[in-house]
């Protein structure tokens, strides 16, 4: 494993780490909600909104890591059945598509975060922009991971 | 033209082997650029598609399922199940269907059911010599029971979209069709199992059965908490999902003492991966659906259907086929909201009760969850089962037929859905 | 030119029926230069998303409720204050006059042109336990509210236990006792089927929140003054039709839930509920001192 690959691998693991912590927190705050509602008869009103925020972070950080580990759902069987004269360009196009989408996701996530920034999440008071930030992160990481995979593919061929 | 571009881009993306979620996203970007719409609106849909409260149940069920698997609950449950009905040919297939009726009937989410039950049952089925594709097929198709048997979030969605349909009647109406569907699936699971020569284990005796029951009891409580929490009304579905996960941690740490820190971490990591896969798909699919709505796709199809025939039997069949087609490529919740106002007047004009149509819609769009190219349950089932989608789909058709057969019965014989609600009056 | 028109309500709802008349009127009056196309049922997204879409010009017309508008146009939070209007007539008098113009100006700064004001009825509490006569009857009961600090403070100040919850979860939560009650107007109480499980509806009329027919400012500025006038006339006519239809629908819903066995009661002392809101108002004015005059002016409208 070269230094670049190791760094990117660490980055992907970091994403899973943060998302995993988010998942555990998600379960814990719902435990707190149930406790508050039934035992204390005082519903913590922030749980719903925090949970919705957490899910977005888990989705996009986990999604970015999925690009690195190539664990997203895809239908590769058609491409793999084709002769290499078609298969190889299609594979390149898939990588190009991922790269483009990653860049657009980053750009749009960033734009959205900026436009949402002045708004407050109801019941929490934190900025709505936090909802869009993970989307930008996911886009940037998707682009970086895909770029590395493209470089690896190119160098493997020669 | 824009519509052709949208689908062209999507299918081309799939052909290149891009992840489905990204192919949907990229096609949507193309569609927005073509229409000259601001791109950020598409990404706003991506974001709000997953900012939905009822979706929170998904990570919880996935996590609870993973914990049950890592911490030894699943193994004990399945031993009990296989002692109880394993003596039948393809016993685990039938256990799978039966537990879906119970588990998914309570979860209300077919996707959550697939991931929770699939992560428990599929590894054991494979261990017992069942082919992975069979395990995926049974798990995925039986999870549709989750949307048909009450309670079901999707039914509430339908009641709201239909404007003034009684939710409690709708809930009751779903029971018989849901059970009917599971009977059909159980039969198919049995026949296929016999054909493939899956093992029928010897009955180990009542003493072993009793012991395995007692051993499995604390683990079984996880299901009881999730099921009972909702049915008794102590908790909402989302809360009971979280509580089920907490209970699973407690039992596996303190009772079974199998959940080490390493296994806990593994459960968290796998849950994050599965959750992210599903939710990212929901996210980009809702942006894609936005464009389909703008193009008024359901409208176009409804007009086409009523233009073809005025024979009720033919129209109902056509409507079912249109819904099946839409269900293959679109998200269930969005489809309920979009198609209900358009199709409901048509079927009511044919003399059908809105309640019956609601049940038909659930079964029909539920089947769409199991079909490619966009089938959330199929995707999740394949991820959990470690099977490629094309492998699973190659052998799934008898299971599709079972659901479709039940769907036809419910469509043409109102008694299946309308008898129980009729008793309420 | 096609004007995409957003509505959260399903087809057949008074708002959607009125918007369809609006679409027809506009198309006829402008001789097809403008053709509004109604997308009911929130198929293009929930309101906060739809507002952003309108501001970006992706949709041209929206039927927005002023409740969730507060996140974008803070002045409209005043309309979410409990008991800000004495009754629906008071709301009409205020919104159709100079007060309404002030809200229009505030919306306009955010790129939203309000043409006319519709009704969303008046909201009251309903629950599964008992008739609410005095604030003391709400003690310890769990009421679902929309996610908004004002509504949480409102229920807490009345002695209840405010529980923000997604709308789709309410029916089951009522049925199973996760919550004891919620609050809404008659048509929603009826169409959501909550009346099947919550058998007590107590008329508190605590929230009377107007809705607008709004046009995107970017679209509006591209429209000729003659067409603007025609569109505005159609919007005002549609709002009148909606108010009429809403009143009829509200009566029909009341009759239907009453027939289904729901016990509807007037509260004993409406003033007691309003007095309980003093800390809510005090806190709101403390946080938004610039809006105090607007509140006083609304209350002064006859
Ligand atoms: Na199953
Ligand atoms: Na199921």
From TrEMBL, chain A:
It is a multi-pass membrane protein. Keywords: Cell inner membrane, Cell membrane, Membrane, Transmembrane, Transmembrane helix, Transport. Pfam families: DctQ. It comes from the Bacteria. The keyword Transmembrane helix applies. Part of the tripartite ATP-independent periplasmic (TRAP) transport system. This is TRAP transporter small permease protein.
Automatic annotation (TrEMBL), chain B:
InterPro entries: DctM (IPR010656), TRAP_DctM (IPR004681). Pfam families: DctM. It is a multi-pass membrane protein. GO terms for cellular component: plasma membrane. It is found in: Cell inner membrane. Residues 7-416 form the TRAP C4-dicarboxylate transport system permease DctM subunit domain. The complex comprises the extracytoplasmic solute receptor protein and the two transmembrane proteins. Part of the tripartite ATP-independent periplasmic (TRAP) transport system. Belongs to the TRAP transporter large permease family. This is TRAP transporter large permease protein. It comes from Salipiger bermudensis (strain DSM 26914 / JCM 13377 / KCTC 12554 / HTCC2601) (Pelagibaca bermudensis).
